[in-house]
Amino acid sequence: MNLVGASIGRTAIYNVDEIANINQAVCLIRVISQNRNINLKYFLHFFNSPICISYMIDKQVDNARANLSMSNVSKFLIPLPPLAEQHRIVERVDTLMQLCDELEERVMAKEDAAERLLLSVCDRICG
After folding, report:
1. CB 25, CB 1: distance < 8 Å
2. 41, 46, 60, 70: which sits with the fewest CB atoms below 10 Å from its CB?
């Protein structure tokens, strides 16, 4: 989880067996027990949700640069629904994110087509 700067609270899953280093701007959150009642993607979606990000920003340490303290992060309350509900939440969020990605691609394609059309019209008028 990023603790400092504009991307405060941004969280990712690092699931590689290689040794890695992090600096003071990042904290490592470990799930102590690979309990069968925990879906790690549920935690990822929760940490990256607007509600959790808003909570993180409310808890940030006041100074010139936005940052969280490890003591604040360690006190986060994480809602933990039953495992089946975690799976439904992850599936729904993943489906919606895929839809957002597809819509973003369509918007970019339309913007690109509009720009090409404008350039073509300008070439015909000016040249």
Report:
1. no
2. 70
> Does residue 25 have a pLDDT over 70?
yes
Residue pair 8/56 in contact (Cβ under 8 Å)? The answer is yes
In a 3-state reduction of DSSP, which class is residue 63? coil
Q: Which residues have CB under 8 Å from 123's CB, separation 6+?
A: none
pLDDT tens-digit readout, 79-123: 889 999 999 999 999 999 999 999 999 999 999 999 999 888 888
Compute the distance between CA of residue 27 and CA of residue 64 in angstroms, rounded to an integer. Answer: 20
Contacts 24+ apart (CB under 8 A), 94-102: 94/41
**pTM of the predicted model, to two decimals?**
0.70
